[in-house]
Amino acid sequence: MLLMWIEDKFMNAESHEALQKYAGKRKVLVTTNLELIQQHSLDIDIVLGDFPRQDLSLLPNLVWFQQFGTGVEWLQSYPELVAAPFILSNCSDSHYDVVADHALALVLAVLRGIPIFAQAQQGKQWQTTSLTACDSLFQLRGKTVLVVGLGSVGLAIVHRLKAFGANIIGMRKNVTHNISNIDKIYKLDELSIAAQQANIIISTLPKTDETNNIFNNDVFNNMAKPSFFFNIGRGNAVQETHLVRALNEGDLNGAGIDVTKIEPLDETSPLWLAKNLLITPHAGGTYDNVITTWRDLALENLALYSAGKPLRNLVVKSQGY
């Protein structure tokens, strides 16, 4: 049996037809009713959609889970599912553009002082900035940007940065081949070296044990000046107390983050009051038709699965991405 976990409003006649066509001889269940699913738990072998991860253990005969969204850090909370034999795919190549757009929005907003101007607007204040003594507004052209993580999101960010005239260096595990628009690629253990050349660091890293707290005082203190930090990946990569210190003491001129270690961010977190920090609430991958985009990708992958062809966006569960 094939389960499509999705609200009815996101399924039209065409998607229902595709679901039935590529399900083969399987019965199809389209629901978000967990009690109904429990009645068929032994029969379900394919799950498409935003099914609750903590309930996957209810499906002992699962062979493939096509999740909505990109992040698979939930696997760290369910090690038994890492070892389970089902294959996992995500939607990492379906909405990287909007995440890259959000990253550039953070960069431009912080460099151009937009949050400060927006606050002044609320008070009906025309905040004049001196042309000869300005230390709060910056241009992107000519800055060296280090993009940490060169997956689909990172490469989309690189493409956008080039149009603004930035110099771009990158970081990834595999440095054996060159990537267009990137001047030099460093390995992850060379972060301190790369940071010394960078005015701007943008992280797109996933949550893994290897990425915990890698952005810390050692990185923030040694960046080229002026210096800015942005995180569109996962919050575990940042030592948040170090980020707050770097901002408040001026080692960083500004920062923008879409993710934090604990979400929602607690109201007592010092991040809220950090100087020149722009926070968005993990909204980088959200847009008006994201669910239908993920639905269509799931159906495309189902067509590949039924034809015995390789799936898009296969996840190596043991590696966490």
Concise structural overview:
The protein is an alpha/beta fold and 321 residues long.
Written description of the protein model:
The radius of gyration is 22 Å and the shape is elongated. It has ten helices and twelve strands. β10 (228-231), α9 and β11 (254-257) form a beta-alpha-beta unit. It is 29% helix and 14% strand. The chain has helices at 13-22, 34-39, 79-83, 96-111, 114-122, 152-163, 191-195, 217-220, 240-248, 290-306, and strands at residues 2-5, 28-30, 46-49, 64-67, 87-89, 144-148, 167-171, 184-186, 200-203, 228-231, 254-257, 277-279. The model has no long low-confidence stretch (mean pLDDT 96). The protein has a seven-stranded parallel beta sheet with strand order 8-7-6-9-10-11-12. The protein is of the alpha/beta class and 321 residues long.
> Could you give the order of strands across the largest sheet?
8-7-6-9-10-11-12
Structural class: alpha/beta
Unreliable spans:
none
Estimate what percentage of residues fall within beta strands.
5-15%
Summed over residues and divided by their number, the pLDDT gives a mean of 96
**Relative helix content:** 25-40%
**Helical run tally:** 10
Radius of gyration: 22 Å
